Each structure stands twice: as C-alpha cells, then as structure tokens.
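Many introductory courses stop at the sequence. We go one step further.
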Amino acid sequence: MPELTRRRALTAAAALTAAAGVRAVDAPGASAAEHHHGSPEAFDEVYRGRRIQGRPASGGGHHHGHGGGFAVFVDGVELHVMQNADGSWISVVSHYAPVSTPRAAARAAVDELQGAALLPLPAN
C-alpha cells in the first residue's frame, strides 16, 4: 500500500470537500417534496392579481421536454419554462434569472411583466 503523503491527503480532502459541496447546492431552495420525488408540486394561486398555475404536463410537444413534463400558466396562457441541469428553472420571460421552482419562475414572470399580458408562443 502506498505511503500517505501530504499531496495524497490534500487530494483526498479536496475530493471529499468537492463532493460535499455538490450535495449542498443540489437543487437550491427546492422543497423536500420537489427534491425527493423529482417533480415539482402542482400549484394554483393568485400572485399580485394574476392567476398562476403549474401542474404536470400531459401530452407531447416541444416545450414539455425542457420543462421536465411540467406546465406553467399565467392567466391561462402557457409560460414556457425550462429546468436547467443544476435543477434551477427559467422562463421565456425571465431567462437570465434562474429560480428554484416553477412557482418561483411564474412569480418572476409576473413581476417582470409589470401588468402586461403574457402572449402565447407561436407553435412551430
């Protein structure tokens, strides 16, 4: 068995620290139900006077693949959402501001719209 050197000890410590760090940032801010079951919870609420809804998507379509099979709506109009590799979510309205859940993406979109109507994306 090789002798434990300072270099090997530091390498092992760095690897363990990196592995622990990955677990700590895995899906930041996600609730236990969202994290353990792999799918966000459905929601239906009024936020700042706008009705936002989210639920598992049914059926096919281009946008459902990026959203992990989850559909989000603002006042009945679908908000295109996408889940990033790190577990965060973005929408077509707030693309450069990732959030922890589809509900947070819907709220961020409402904030960004500032009362304007969400227009549906054209189907290709």
